[in-house]
Design a protein that fits this description.
single chain, alpha+beta, four-stranded antiparallel β-sheet, 4 strands, globular
Length: about 110
Amino acid sequence: TLLASSAASDVYKRQDTEYLAKTRENLQAERAYLVPRLRELVAEVYDGYGNFLLFRDEPDLKERMLEVGVLIRACGDFEGLDDTYFRIGIRSHSENQEFIRRLARVKNVVK
């Protein structure tokens, strides 16, 4: 009925709001984890607000990361950027830890 449908809609909206709040909280926490660690390993990091991070490093970084099983987005085809710009998605904490571990291996830094 209309009343049941309205109640279900209210529950969905509350759940959606809770999910969005948790997602924002997780992104902030993982960004706070990733940014300082990336800054130790790459040339430059551009902190942002989305669910990804933009950074600069050597042009061959994408290929070197592929060798250890990690795909990063090369951004040389973006207007105003060159082949030294890369982008990664902010993932779960365990995935972010593994990304940093493999990046450190590629950069010959013990982590």
